[in-house]
Amino acid sequence: MVIGEPLADPPTETRRVNLYRLLGGENLRDHVSARAIDDQHRFRLHDVRVGDLNGLLVEGWSDDEPLEWTSMVRTLTTVELPFTSTVASAALFVDLDDETFTVTFNQGWRLVRESTIDRGFGIDFAVRVVDDDEIRHVTRWALSAKSRVDRNVVPSGQGLWSFGLREHAELVRQLTAMARVDITVNLTHMRKTRYRRNPRLWLECGESLKLPLSVHGDGLISDLREISRVLREHPVSEELGPLRRVRRVSNRDERREVLDSAVVAMLAKPEPALGEVGVAYPAKYFDGPEVHRYKGTLNGTAIDTADLTLNHLASPLRHVSAAARLQALRSGQIDGYDEASHSATDGMPAVQWIAAEVLNPSGRYILLDGDWYELGDEYVRHVDRVVHKAFDNPPPWQLPAWSDAPKNADGVVVEGAYSEHVAVVDSRFLCLDKKLVKTRAHRKGFEACDLLGPDNSLVHVKKTSTATGSSPLSHLFAQGLIAAESFTDPEMWEKFREVVAQRDPERASRLGTRPGSLVFAIHHSDKALTADNLFTFAWSTLVSAWTTLTTYGFPAHVTVIP
Q1: Which terminus of the chain has fewer CB atoms gathered within 10 Å of its CB, N or C?
Q2: Pick from 345, 43, 42, 17: which is nearest to 212 by CA?
Q3: Cβ atoms of 163 and 154 closer than 8 Å
Q4: Which residues pair with residue 15 across a beta bridge?
Q5: Helix H or strand E encompassing 304
Q6: 3-state class of 250 per DSSP?
Q7: In what order do the strands lie in the sheet with 293-298?
Q8: Distance of CA 325 to CAs 354, 370, 529, Å?
């Protein structure tokens, strides 16, 4: 080298790969999937050097799998084609200071032990560097609505919230976006593009981070250190911070076994220190007529009741082992039927009628609609504030006592009879219980309210008890949310006006153009319901409804019926 000659730039060749951050483990092998370690015929482990650090390379082939299109050839021609394919994959594990990362190639994510994946890594990076006006794709999972996974695309420049996210009740699983121009991220890729006009870093963020990383050992270690620095030093964007509040626990995560076992234990014997468990409507029952009868079979025990309680789920399981209880909950079936004996499903696993909260040293988890979610402390604090605000904001009128309404043959006041009673004793209220608004989006109809109250308030009525817990309130809050979202469409409001006119034409003529407010009216039969004893798993639906209603300009209230 000639003295004074400038040093050559380090290599800038990069490749777009998936990067995971891993948690726990005493050595790199603790992060490798059991399958890759046990099947030494298909997979091999190599101790390697990556730059100046020790690493572990895991590589191998998948099982032979038939090609997908051969089934169509068989149905068209009856000819069975024996074609199969295998996929080569690899994962490179590296210990970097106090952190562990893995770069995966092809289906290399299958070689990583699920329970050690830091599922918030990609989103944690995104909320520090992403330009919220340059988000192109969002995949979101609606909390408590397992059946809804939305993938949305918007034109450049629309901004994150143009996706219609309910940031307090939806889990953003993945987003694709550009990094902000005002943040310096010194990656190899950015050095390669520094002479371009307005170079930008394109990121895919989810459980992993997909981005271009250096193909050279020293360069890769430098890139990993830069990513670690950004996570350590850059503040979280105020606009994107809510995306970190809830994280779904993967079906393959080993924590699920511990969480499921905790629910089974609480079904057998309540353990307040461990958490709480209750009955909750599956999401498929949120939209449509009220459930009036529950029928099914659990562990050979027939269920046929007008009021599903936790005892209906726990009693058939008391004399079997913990493992058998869990299997029974998964294989048992319970359906909800409306007054016309119609059900929203053709069979719903019993476990999806259970909601639970489990507290353990690693965090706070809730079970909703068969899925587990991890709640961050920030989420819990935020939701607690909103729930207290909702309970501290009653409407300017009070409903009569529940016990004043007529009782049925069993000596019980049911919700429909209570609503009719209110309309009889107070002319400001019109009973619309079981009066459904049918639209193209809601062919079975949805219940806009139980009572149409003063100033066009939509009043939704629900009775709870210690036996049912407050978890059925998730259905109440979801109904209110459906009504509010539907009535932002003037055509839907006119459909509602037609329903009102069937009961009171003069009242229908005074409806105006939109609801005046929405009220959740709740009676707890054996103790006072407060913001502090509302089940955690009813929080998210209330907060989602509250936030959406206030966004639409509909005042929202919670009132407790004495």
Answers
A1: N
A2: 17
A3: yes
A4: 213
A5: strand 301-305
A6: coil
A7: 301-305, 293-298, 333-337, 348-349
A8: 13, 15, 31
Q: Cα–Cα distance between 138 and 174 in angstroms, integer?
A: 6
Tokens for 242, please give them: 């809510």
The H-or-E segment that residue 41 falls in is: none
Sign for the CA dihedral angle at 285, 287, 291, 295 comes to negative
474 neighbors 387 (Cβ within 8 angstroms)? no
Amino acid residing at 261: S
33 is written with which tokens?
A: 């999937």
* Contacting residues for 231 by C-beta, under 8 A, at least 6 apart: 124, 125, 128
CA distance 274 to 277: 10
d(CA 422, CA 401): 9
Rg over alpha carbons for the chain, rounded to the nearest Å, is 28
Tokens representing residue 487 in the block: 């009535």
The encoded tokens of residue 36 equal 């890759």
Question: 């000596």: which residue's tokens?
Answer: 411
Structure tokens at 546: 């509250």
Residue 270 and residue 254: Cα distance in Å, rounded?
24
Per-residue pLDDT of the chain (562 residues; tens, 9 = 90+): 333 344 445 677 889 999 999 988 889 999 998 888 888 888 999 999 999 999 999 999 877 778 878 888 988 999 998 888 888 999 999 999 889 999 999 888 889 987 788 877 888 898 888 887 777 776 655 554 333 344 444 444 444 443 344 444 455 667 788 888 777 788 888 876 555 544 678 888 888 899 999 999 999 999 999 999 999 998 888 777 777 777 777 766 778 888 888 888 888 777 766 777 878 777 667 655 677 888 999 999 999 988 888 888 888 888 888 778 888 888 888 888 877 777 766 668 888 888 788 887 777 888 877 778 887 777 778 778 888 888 898 999 999 999 999 988 888 888 889 999 999 999 999 999 888 887 766 767 778 899 999 999 999 999 887 766 666 687 788 788 788 778 888 888 898 999 999 999 999 998 888 888 999 999 988 777 888 877 766 776 787 778 777 777 888 899 999 9
Please name the residue that has the structure tokens 């069975």: 80
Sign of CA dihedral 374, 386, 283, 554: negative
User: Could you tell me which residues come within 8 angstroms of residue 416 by beta carbon, excluding any fewer than 6 positions away?
Assistant: 433, 434
* CA atoms within 13 Å, Cβ hemisphere of 251: 2
Written as six digits, the tokens of 136 are 């192109």
Specify the residue for token string 């918007």: 154
The answer to whether 33 touches 113, Cβ cutoff 8 Å, is yes
Helix %, strand %, coil % of the chain (to 5): 35, 30, 40
